[in-house]
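Justification of computing resources. Each target in the renewal requires a structure prediction run like the one illustrated here; the chain below, 227 residues long, is used simply to show the kind of job we budget for.
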Amino acid sequence: MQPRIMPPLPPIILFQLLSISLLSHFKGNEAFAIPKRRYHHAKHSPSLTYRKGPTLDRVNTQLTVEPAIVAGALATAGAAAWWVSGSEEREKKAKYAEWEAREREYQLVRERLAYIEPKEQWTEEELKPYNGDDETGPILLAVKGDVFNVWKGRNFYGKGAEYSIMAGRDATRFLAKNRLEEETEEERRVDLNIAERASLETWYWIIKNKYDIVGKLAGYDPKTTEM
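Resulting structure tokens:
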């Protein structure tokens, strides 16, 4: 059986014990004892002479403090100051750790609510319900034939956000053309040029590195976007 080890005392308790020890030392130290008054007849006093009444002897009121006592007092004061100054920093760290724990829990809840079961293929019609109108649900969009759940970017693709026009649909041509407006029928019939395909490739890898793929877009033709 291993011996039990007593946990160390908190610093503030140590400060109190040291202070009590010092006070007890001061109380019993003769160097701090002030002589009592003594009254006697004037003729016995070589320093103070009165015709009547008591006289007060001259006493040595200089305190002689041992160096060890001074060192102990300074150490106690320094340690106490350190403890007080460090308490604010410890309190900040504790609050930050508490905030981190709450944030992790919040993100886990968001992830559960926004989860959607991946499947082999999605039609464009099936993407429409996941357009970001649900403030906690999944947000789907397709890029170059891959379907992504971009719920982590709700501030970009959610309802009323800057790129909300891309949510719940195939966003390939929006990204290739770097535009946030609907194309006309005539514009949609024009193939992407080399510059637009290069732009699309950049956006594809940005999105792929940030969000989860949940399937493929049915009917996608790779020839329409390949370099």
